[in-house]
Design goal:
The chain is α+β, with helices and mostly antiparallel strands. The chain is 39% helix and 24% strand. The chain has eight helices and twelve strands. Strand 5 and strand 6 form a beta hairpin.
Length: 250
């Protein structure tokens, strides 16, 4: 998804929005920070640096000035909250995935319920929300974009077929790059090993497919796990619940 051409929108509006499965919000940026929480489905946020995606109970922090596009996997019920640029409870200038506790979820839903409300009560609600945000765990569920063309070619092959089980040496042979060179590139550019990156890729595709209603056994097969039980184990360790119980609160 390209994020080169974009629309600049001065403020990040606080609002709720429904996005149908497969729906896209084109690349844009804001002068304000934004918190985006998907009450249903899986939301993918793409920038020139990569893609961040929401598992079961997460929100995405998008810093002011970040050019980003949205893609819906499954039916999305988005709660979007604008935060003045002078407030940065996470202290980061990069998109960040945040674990959403039941309390934070309710705060986000309550604050976005009536964007026109300018009462002191709602202002206090925002301060509590930001306090909760500061205390929320950060989740490194991110597919970075490669800048090295050799690494990008390898990543593209696996993105087209997450079930591709070739080793790094075998993939390197296709692009005429040694295994050790590719291994160094994965660590240098992504801060993770090749197996770690491939697991992230497979989990992303698993989330997308589950949100679209695909059966667990089919997801396991198409995303490259050796068995359904192996997939369930990895998914549970990553997200804290099994793919069979995967559903989003409404």
């Amino acid at each position: 998804m390209s994020v080169i051409r974009h629309e600049h929108k001065p403020k990040a509006p606080t609002r709720n929005q429904v996005l149908a499965a497969g729906g896209i919000i084109d690349a844009h940026s804001h002068d304000e920070h934004q918190i985006i929480y998907a009450g249903t489905g899986v939301l993918a946020i793409t920038t020139t640096a990569g893609t961040w995606f929401t598992p079961g109970t997460s929100a995405i922090w998008v810093p002011a000035g970040t050019v980003h596009a949205h893609r819906a996997h499954g039916h999305l019920e988005l709660h979007m909250l604008g935060v003045p640029a002078g407030l940065n409870p996470l202290g980061t200038d990069e998109p960040t995935l945040i674990g959403v506790s039941p309390l934070l979820r309710e705060l986000i839903i309550a604050y976005t319920h009536d964007p026109q409300d300018t009462s002191e009560e709602r202002e206090r609600l925002l301060h509590v929300l930001l306090d909760q945000l500061r205390a929320s765990p950060r989740e490194p569920i991110h597919l970075p974009t490669a800048t090295d063309l050799r690494l990008a070619e390898v990543c593209q092959m696996l993105e087209q077929d997450p079930a591709d089980g070739r080793t790094l040496a075998q993939l390197g042979a296709v692009v005429a790059v040694g295994e050790r060179t590719l291994s160094r590139l994965f660590k240098a550019e992504f801060g993770m090993t090749f197996p770690q990156w491939r697991t992230q890729l497979r989990l992303y595709n698993a989330l997308r497919m589950l949100a679209e209603g695909t059966a667990v056994t089919t997801v396991a097969h198409q995303c490259g796990w050796s068995s359904t039980s192996a997939f369930i184990d990895v998914f549970r360790r990553a997200y804290g619940y099994t793919p069979g119980t995967y559903h989003r609160p409404t």
